[in-house]
UniProtKB/TrEMBL annotation:
Signal peptide: none annotated. PANTHER family: SENSOR PROTEIN KDPD. The keyword Acyltransferase does not apply. This is histidine kinase. It is an enzyme of class 2 (transferase). It is a multi-pass membrane protein.
Length: 833
């Protein structure tokens, strides 16, 4: 059976027009003869959206009852039975009511797709799992309903419904998004201009990354190695030398010339060819890269030019910036054009910038004693022997005399040593034997014959070859030690880069996997745990068996590419240990999150203990005084006075009884610990009893309650105590003729209860004192109501995962805002589109 196609309309914020655009597309498909039905659409009371939905066949919704409340959800079975060609499903991230077939609406969509039904849906950027924490930092509103990134990225088509931030605010102010009573709060909270601008940028960047990822997959599937200049990506090659800062700044300027340009700095650690810079210089250049907005990468390769070009092609680079050689003209003439020429030759369609710098053209230096003796160096040693041997023979033969034999021998000995330094033991032995034969033939009597007349001459030739062998052995040993030192240095730099990525806030596991792939030049690396993939980097090739590196007892690294050697496996063992530590840290973090409710309970208990003495002392003192006065034999009380004292005692004791009973009920003390019992709570059912407790009616308080308000996760008893105290203050300080007001609204996944008064207000510099114990103004008699103080109210609300804040009331006064999270079964169900 053909699988359905998924098309997603993505928006930066509620109200940009995602649902409207989805309905327009549905009507267009219907007008073209397509079979289109509305599976579920949330109009949020918007007349234009509702009008557009008319005329398109709609599948009736299914009513699911939860805690006695009927919730309208998409009828998945009815849509499957109807079997349309295309289904319009609004709010992809919605959480279904308990009792539904699936927990999430995106799971319902997956079922429709599996049945061959095309689906058009909508989602906001804040509901993408990987961006959840970023959106919360921007808006301050946690998003509890998310769609996994891999689910959303699997969509066949993702389109951005874009609207400028100021245009969205204008729509909101005109009443096209929320009702009039919610506009002011929305404009001053979630829909701030800065918030909308940041969310819009986040949506654009996420979609651009998704397009870039799709392009990489396409290029990998079709084996396209040439560069496609869809976006400027500038790779700067760093050697760790003093020219690094110049190259980075030039690369940053090149990247800045085009919108969306990327800067990538790469340092290639190799066993040959590239003169290593100081570690402190590389660290400084890594820091400068990050300040310039780029990313730092470190790879290990056998050949600098090939590794550099391979990295540039892997990231689809368009520009490659390298520095001009630091070697002088003589060194260039002797050893060839160097890395720059090779990079230019192999770069293909990548533009190469060779940048001049202050360290260019340094003085000539002889080849270093250290260094890996590669095949190139051995060939160079043989070539030096073949070219210089005849040249020296021609020069010395013309100056031959009986006294020159010592100079002749030392000259050939020097040639042997130089060849040993350049090419190692085999070219040196070849040169020693050739030099010995040449000396015997051209300079030792009888001339032009190869014969040894005296045993001493034979011993001299043996010593001559032995000297060459000893020098070559020392050179080879130094080269092996240098190779090991360079390898260790490259490994330490790689581990420092990995650790730096984690410390700078990158995801630890993803950073370790990414750097492992880059360092060993692998096609792809996956971190697996059982049958699941924790994270991946790169695109695994078709076919071929991966190499497995075990990470403790719970995970394994799956390496796609060339099999690592012994030294690479040792380094992979170190990386595996770091990954195991990161997994353990992740487990500890998950465990710590489970302790969060205990911290909330402690927070409420602390607030209770700090305020209980203040709340109990006054009625207890009044009752004690009244009873003591009645029992006094020194005063004769009249019946009226006695009744008044009894009434005072009764009132105080009744208040104390009710307060203690309420505290015991709401605190649910078990073994000395105050427990917060969170449950799905209807805010209206808490506000009305709060009014009854304060004996307030329509003449005292104005109510603006949202009829579509979702339930919240709260403790009803604690919430009522908080509302009673805040509302009592509002009524007390409201001037005559201006009632206090209680309004409710929903923003994102948060419900706000706003208790508004039009009194004198509180200066901003004194707002923090509102929540300090014993700061209740006017609380000096026995008739104003006890409450638990704003300190206790704040502790109760924060213990339930919400917040209590103070704001100015437009026109004067104070507004107390109680924010609570929407219950999981209703979050995002009211979001605007």
């Amino acid at each position: 059976m053909r699988k359905g196609r998924l098309r997603v309309f993505l928006g930066a914020a509620p109200g940009v027009g995602k649902t409207y655009t989805m309905l327009e597309e549905g009507r267009r498909l219907r007008d073209e003869g397509g079979d289109v039905v509305v599976a579920v659409v949330e109009t949020h009371g918007r007349s234009a959206t509702a009008a557009l939905a008319e005329g398109v066949e709609a599948v009736p919704r299914l009513t699911v009852f939860h805690r006695g409340v009927g919730l309208a959800e998409m009828d998945l079975d009815a849509v499957l039975e109807r079997g349309p060609a295309t289904a319009l499903v609004d709010e992809y991230a919605h959480t279904n009511a308990p009792g539904s077939r699936h927990e999430k609406r995106w799971e319902d969509v997956s079922t429709l797709l599996a049945a061959g039904i095309d689906v058009i849906t909508t989602v906001n950027i804040q509901h993408i799992e990987s961006l959840n924490d970023v959106v919360q930092q921007i808006t301050g509103v946690p998003q509890r309903e998310t769609v996994p990134d891999e689910v959303l990225r699997a969509a066949d088509q993702i389109e951005l419904v874009d609207l400028a931030p100021q245009a969205l605010r204008d729509r909101l102010a005109a009443g096209h998004v929320y009702p009039a009573e919610r506009i002011d709060a929305a404009l001053s909270n979630y829909f701030r201009l800065g918030n909308l601008t940041a969310l819009r940028e986040l949506a654009l960047l996420w979609l651009a990354d998704e397009v870039d990822s799709a392009l990489k997959d396409y290029r990998a599937e079709h084996r396209i190695d040439t560069t496609w200049e869809a976006r400027e990506r500038v790779v700067v090659a760093l050697t760790g030398g003093p020219e690094g800062e110049t190259l980075l700044r030039r690369g940053a300027r090149i990247a800045a010339r085009s919108s969306g340009g990327e800067l990538l700095a790469v340092h290639v650690s190799s066993q040959e060819g590239l003169r290593e810079g100081r570690p402190e210089a590389l660290a400084a250049q890594r820091s400068l890269t990050e300040k310039l907005g780029g990313t730092f990468h470190q790879v290990v390769g056998d050949g600098i030019p090939g590794t550099l070009v391979e990295f540039a092609r892997a990231v689809n680079a368009t520009q490659l910036v390298i520095g001009i050689s630091r070697r002088g003209r003589l060194a260039t003439a002797l050893t060839g054009p160097g890395i720059g020429a090779t990079v230019i030759r192999e770069s293909g369609g990548i533009d190469v910038h060779i940048v001049n710098h202050a360290a260019a053209g340094g003085r000539f230096a002889l080849p270093r004693l250290g260094g890996a003796l590669t095949a190139r160096r051995r060939v160079l040693g043989f070539a030096l022997a073949v070219l210089c041997g005849p040249l020296i023979t021609w020069l010395l033969a013309g100056q031959r005399s009986a006294e020159s034999i010592v100079i002749d021998v030392l000259t050939y000995q020097l040639l042997v040593i130089v060849v040993a330094l350049v090419g190692g033991i085999w070219p040196a032995l070849y040169t020693a034997v050739l030099s010995a034969v040449t000396l015997d033939y051209f300079f030792i009597d009888p001339l032009h014959t190869i014969s040894i007349d005296h045993p001493v001459h034979l011993l001299a030739l043996v010593l001559y070859v032995a000297n060459a062998a000893l020098v070559s052995y020392i050179v080879d040993k130094a080269a092996r030690r240098t190779r090991a030192a360079r390898r260790a240095r490259a490994e330490s730099e790689l581990l420092a880069t990995i650790a730096g990525s984690v410390l700078r806030g990158q995801d630890a596991l993803q950073a370790l996997v990414d750097r492992t792939r880059e360092a060993f030049g692998l096609d792809a690396v996956r971190l697996r745990s059982g049958d699941g993939v924790l994270c991946t980097s790169g695109q695994p090739p078709q076919g071929g068996e991966p190499t497995l590196v075990h990470v403790g007892e719970r995970a394994a690294l799956e390496l796609h590419g060339a099999d690592p050697g012994a030294s690479e496996r040792r380094l992979l063992g170190v990386i595996a240990a770091q990954i195991d530590a990161a997994l353990e840290h992740q487990d500890l973090r998950d465990t710590a999150s489970e302790v969060g409710p205990l911290a909330q309970n402690d927070q409420v208990r602390s607030a209770l203990l700090s305020a209980v003495s203040h709340d109990l002392r006054r009625p207890l003192t009044a009752a004690t005084t009244a009873v003591s006065s009645l029992r006094s034999s020194e005063v004769s009380w009249s019946p009226a006075d006695r009744d008044e004292l009894l009434a005072t005692a009764e009132e105080s004791l009744t208040t104390l009884t009710g307060l203690v009973t309420d505290l015991l009920d709401v605190s649910r003390i078990q073994a000395g610990a105050l427990v917060v019992a969170l449950a799905d709570t209807d805010v209206d059912e808490v506000i009305l009893p709060s009014l009854d407790e304060l004996d307030l009616g329509p003449a005292d308080v104005d109510l603006e309650l949202d009829p579509d308000l979702p339930t919240v996760r709260a403790d009803a008893g604690l919430l009522q105590r908080a509302i009673v105290n805040v509302l009592a203050n509002a009524v007390r300080f409201s001037p005559r003729g201006l009632n206090a007001r209680v309004a409710t609204s929903t923003f994102g996944d948060t419900v706000e209860i706003r208790v508004i008064d039009h009194g004198g207000g509180v200066p901003p510099e004194r707002r923090d004192q509102l929540f300090v114990p014993f700061q209740r103004l006017g609380d000096t008699d026995n008739t104003t109501g006890l409450g638990l103080g704003l300190t206790l109210s704040k502790g109760f609300v924060e213990g339930m995962g919400g917040g209590l804040t103070a704001e100015d009331t437009p026109g004067g006064g104070l507004t107390m805002v109680i924010s609570l999270p929407v219950a999981d079964g209703h979050a995002c169900g009211r979001k605007g589109q």
